[in-house]
Amino acid sequence: MTTSSRRDRDPVLQAIAEVFRRHGYEGTSLSRLTTATGLGKGSLYNLFPHGKEQMIAEVLAHIQRWFETEIFVPLEETENPSAGIERMFRSTEQYFQSGQRICLMGLMALDGDTPFGTQIQAYFSDWQTALASAIYKSGKPQEEATDLAEEIVSGIQGALVLAHAQSDAGIFLRRMQSFRRRLGFPCGRLQ
Amino acid sequence: MTTSSRRDRDPVLQAIAEVFRRHGYEGTSLSRLTTATGLGKGSLYNLFPHGKEQMIAEVLAHIQRWFETEIFVPLEETENPSAGIERMFRSTEQYFQSGQRICLMGLMALDGDTPFGTQIQAYFSDWQTALASAIYKSGKPQEEATDLAEEIVSGIQGALVLAHAQSDAGIFLRRMQSFRRRLGFPCGRLQ
DNA sequence: CCCAGTTTGTACCGATCGGTACAAAGAGTC
DNA sequence: GACTCTTTGTACCGATCGGTACAAACTGGG
């Protein structure tokens, strides 16, 4: 551990994540990873001794951590639930680059038999729980809060799918506005 | 063309489609296809001379055709828009096996650089257009009809993602009920 | 029953897969 | 500058990839 090691891991991990997002787990080959990161196999296997599986595991863990600290915790802890929810919308729009970026958790959820089922499950249920809690605190009855949270969390995933299918980021942003309206946030009616 | 040829294509195509659904395009290997179909490579390349790419192309075309005749056209042509919409919900629930089955179009939309972008685009915009038309005919203003159609089409995709992530088909069915409610269909409030 | 045409299994192709071995190069310490 | 320890590029591994060649087995029509 002379110089880099820890310091250089993060940007490399980010580049790797983007490859997984674009090609899925099985479509991500080591050659794609070497070109995307600019590192040779030697360096990659030095940083991630267990290869592809360690890479995807660390990428997923990194995503989970980011959402946890940046979105889920603020959602649950805020004393101003509306502000917390609005912050979630903004962070989400930013993270997914207004719909141009895919949700790797959602992609992995569809991909079938990964060994990360429980991790993916936790990601989505954490999100929904945190959001439901904030909506509940904002004054809606518990039952409705849970239902709205499910609607929004799944709706975000669907918006990403549709936006990507149509190559139209506007769809994603429009859906996000629709969720705000649904929660009674002031943001103007349609469009 | 002595016996089978045309007749046997369909069940084989169905088995192939299931493999694509479970593993994505890049994750679908010829060995998986041979075991899933029970056919050897020789037979597969006899039915689909251009290999994997022809298979996925025919699978997508088959899906497109099915939705077109079974859902989109009835949606647009019905004189009773509410009945047409309810029929769409039922067909959709049935097709996706109450959320246990994945939407291959949605998966391909996420998968990135496929040569089927326009086909995928058409699938979703056809769906949205047909649904918006039915909602409009049911009495909602055009602007709202378009928005609701976008909400529901993307919402279905998101419901599939979430249901698969949580291994809980109930999520999908609950979302579908929510859409019905949203359109003013009688189906009881929450749950 | 024979024969044209089809369907099938098997062997094989070069390319690429994920992963390993290891020697050369780099970098911090003294 | 010599000595560690880490990082890197390269060559190589067996396995599998998508795809082809082709002879044997099958099939219905005459």
TrEMBL record, chains A, B:
Source domain of life: Bacteria
SUPFAM superfamilies tied to this protein: Homeodomain-like (SSF46689), Tetracyclin repressor-like, C-terminal domain (SSF48498)
UniProt cross-references to InterPro entries, sorted A to Z: Homeodomain-like_sf, HTH_TetR, Tet_transcr_reg_TetR-rel_C_sf, YxaF_TetR_C
DNA-binding annotation, residue ranges on this chain: 29-48
Coiled-coil portions: none
Keywords of the record: DNA-binding, Transcription, Transcription regulation
Domain HTH tetR-type: 6-66
Protein name, as recorded: TetR family transcriptional regulator
